[in-house]
């Protein structure tokens, strides 16, 4: 059964499309009142992630409002370290935390790769159920945090202004950090492949904190392990190519290196001009992005104008997936998201065909 | 009376030096026990800034410990908006805040440029006193926040995870933000020129938050106003050229544009490879940076090795001032800072002369 709308998948593979497809990072989230109602019914955030019925409900909510060209699995980037036993929890206003952060060498040596079909069964069940509910309308994106980004949270125990613990390990005990990253890379590979087997039609790696590294450290401690994952991903499933997207926030300096990894697309934050990014990577990869999420606090004329600038900067031709440069803010008016999606669909047509 | 050590000034002007000069952003600060004692005597942070005796004491403390090649005025980047009447204060663990943030158009229209020799007299008094105490040992750096960075704090009322208020103004009411930025640029120009007249021998503009902008917005709302300042700075004072340094944290994508402004040096954060930065800007400007401050949590052998990598990446020749890529962490052991300074002085000699 073919997809009714495969624009997103064609754009990721640099094939011709009639318009520029669009989705939004964190499109199922707190800016939607219906999401907040689902979340309240679930209990806490992880209760929502681990309940396939509710995860399906959350995944589909933005698609009921906006003509988005892709759905993304409702889940968290930190499910893997939780499955490793670190105890993920969310404290209000402080983001994700771990009850048992990785600080001691013996704990690091004891880490093992979880079996995604056992310890992360709830994710695979959600994927299957979401695919059924989507009924081949649009493709479903699966995802994970990058090995380095997972390690940041695993070692720090939460977010951090300067990541001093994980970066001290990087400089002082690189062997230990490499050990964590190798385990993480194998875990992410198995996890994303299990998501593919369960039905996701594209995968994205979120490297939220790779941009906190020096260029040399980024290459050795973040990029190398994302490369290991890309090399290990299932390329074809159910007769279709499964494209991969790598997003390093703050990674604009390293686009050539990211493109050389063999991923199909690079997610861009809003700080880089997408036209210049295109010049730098040539026709090697698709670019996904990169409207500043703060634009959605403006009036619809301004939103339309700023969408137009991103489309114009990318220019004519294939290989662009429109997105925000970062997750949509919880304080966004959903009507402004609607205005952005409509503007992308309308204004992008002259750049195609 | 010539300076005993003018290595820093020569390096900023791309003249030959015997070794690579070094200083540290936030070198007078909480990692030094003697600073914490001075601070405790002063009362709060602004009491320390506004007391020329104590500001002089704090400025000189790191020079008594380490053979640094420059002193930097002990002050805050936000003295200008404080002088404009916004009420700067520091709440523990939350960084700088303003009692009366700029939100209403009438308040914005009422902003005026402070007279630095009146409202910021305490800074000029500190500069004169520090120069006397330095007794021509090393040059003194003056500084200010950039117009955009000042505006971030002025509009948000403090730091912010996404600067949504000031960036919403940028997209929705660019005329209002331009009005603030023009006032700020005129205020910073007058302030830095007053510092030069009072005795600082180089000036630095700290653009802490320009890196939160898109490329187009950075050019229009941050760079253009730093350009206005550079154009208005006193170039020669007391028979010497006064070099200028521009530091945009997260500005690695825009080095060519920063170099074209006419500043003498660009401050680099640690995310960019300094050798690649040098290739991009050619011999137009000196580069200042860019060791990851977290390296100072390592042992001295590691610190020495990482210092060596930065020096090696920059390579032979003039035009490098060594620094951290960001302010030194308050949790740094002062002996580690000493190890860095010693390593720079020793390991850089083969790259010169």
Automatic annotation (TrEMBL), chains A, B:
<dbReference type="InterPro" id="IPR038071">
    <property type="entry name" value="UROD/MetE-like_sf"/>
</dbReference>
<feature type="binding site">
    <location>
        <position position="326"/>
    </location>
    <ligand>
        <name>substrate</name>
    </ligand>
</feature>
<dbReference type="GO" id="GO:0004853">
    <property type="term" value="F:uroporphyrinogen decarboxylase activity"/>
</dbReference>
<keyword id="KW-0456">Lyase</keyword>
<comment type="pathway">
    <text>Porphyrin-containing compound metabolism; protoporphyrin-IX biosynthesis; coproporphyrinogen-III from 5-aminolevulinate: step 4/4.</text>
</comment>
<keyword id="KW-0210">Decarboxylase</keyword>
<feature type="binding site">
    <location>
        <position position="208"/>
    </location>
    <ligand>
        <name>substrate</name>
    </ligand>
</feature>
<comment type="subunit">
    <text>Homodimer.</text>
</comment>
<dbReference type="Pfam" id="PF01208">
    <property type="entry name" value="URO-D"/>
</dbReference>
<feature type="binding site">
    <location>
        <position position="153"/>
    </location>
    <ligand>
        <name>substrate</name>
    </ligand>
</feature>
<keyword id="KW-0963">Cytoplasm</keyword>
<comment type="function">
    <text>Catalyzes the decarboxylation of four acetate groups of uroporphyrinogen-III to yield coproporphyrinogen-III.</text>
</comment>
<dbReference type="InterPro" id="IPR000257">
    <property type="entry name" value="Uroporphyrinogen_deCOase"/>
</dbReference>
<feature type="binding site">
    <location>
        <begin position="26"/>
        <end position="30"/>
    </location>
    <ligand>
        <name>substrate</name>
    </ligand>
</feature>
<feature type="domain" description="Uroporphyrinogen decarboxylase (URO-D)">
    <location>
        <begin position="21"/>
        <end position="30"/>
    </location>
</feature>
<feature type="binding site">
    <location>
        <position position="76"/>
    </location>
    <ligand>
        <name>substrate</name>
    </ligand>
</feature>
<dbReference type="GO" id="GO:0005829">
    <property type="term" value="C:cytosol"/>
</dbReference>
<feature type="site" description="Transition state stabilizer">
    <location>
        <position position="76"/>
    </location>
</feature>
<keyword id="KW-0627">Porphyrin biosynthesis</keyword>
<dbReference type="InterPro" id="IPR006361">
    <property type="entry name" value="Uroporphyrinogen_deCO2ase_HemE"/>
</dbReference>
<feature type="domain" description="Uroporphyrinogen decarboxylase (URO-D)">
    <location>
        <begin position="141"/>
        <end position="157"/>
    </location>
</feature>
<comment type="similarity">
    <text>Belongs to the uroporphyrinogen decarboxylase family.</text>
</comment>
<protein>
    <recommendedName>
        <fullName>Uroporphyrinogen decarboxylase</fullName>
        <ecNumber>4.1.1.37</ecNumber>
    </recommendedName>
</protein>
<dbReference type="GO" id="GO:0019353">
    <property type="term" value="P:protoporphyrinogen IX biosynthetic process from glutamate"/>
</dbReference>
């Amino acid at each position: 059964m073919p997809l009714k709308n495969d624009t997103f998948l064609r754009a990721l593979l640099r094939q011709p499309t009639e318009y520029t497809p669009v989705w939004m990072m964190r499109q199922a989230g707190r800016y939607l009142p219906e999401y907040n109602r689902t979340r309240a019914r679930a209990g806490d955030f992880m209760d929502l992630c681990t309940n396939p019925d509710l995860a399906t409900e959350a995944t589909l909510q933005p698609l009921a409002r906006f003509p988005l060209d892709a759905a993304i699995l409702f889940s968290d980037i930190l499910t893997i370290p939780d499955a490793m036993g670190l105890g993920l929890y969310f404290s209000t206003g402080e983001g994700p935390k771990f009850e048992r952060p990785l600080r001691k060498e013996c704990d690091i040596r004891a880490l093992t790769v979880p079996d995604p079909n056992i310890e992360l069964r709830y994710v695979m069940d959600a994927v299957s159920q979401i695919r059924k509910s989507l009924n081949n309308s649009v493709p479903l994106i699966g995802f994970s945090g990058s090995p380095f980004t997972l390690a940041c949270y695993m070692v720090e125990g939460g977010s951090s202004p300067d990541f001093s613990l994980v970066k001290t390990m990087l400089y002082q005990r690189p062997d230990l950090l490499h050990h964590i990253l190798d385990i993480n890379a194998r875990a992410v590979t198995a996890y994303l492949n299990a998501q593919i087997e369960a039905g996701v039609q594209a995968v994205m790696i979120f490297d939220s904190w790779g941009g906190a590294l020096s260029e040399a450290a980024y290459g050795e401690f973040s990029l190398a392990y994302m490369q290991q994952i890309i090399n290990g991903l299932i390329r074809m499933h159910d007769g279709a190519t499964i494209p991969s997207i790598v997003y390093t926030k703050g990674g604009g300096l390293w686009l050539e290196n990211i493109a050389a990894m063999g991923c199909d697309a690079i997610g861009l934050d809003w700080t880089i001009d997408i036209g210049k990014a295109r010049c730098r990577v040539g026709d090697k990869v698709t670019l996904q992005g990169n409207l500043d999420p703060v634009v959605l606090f403006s009036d619809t004329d301004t939103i339309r104008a700023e969408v137009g600038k991103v489309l114009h900067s990318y220019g004519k031709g294939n290989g662009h997936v429109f997105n925000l440069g970062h997750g949509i803010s919880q304080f966004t008016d959903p009507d402004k998201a609607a205005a952005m999606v409509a503007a992308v669909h309308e204004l992008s047509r002259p750049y195609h065909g």
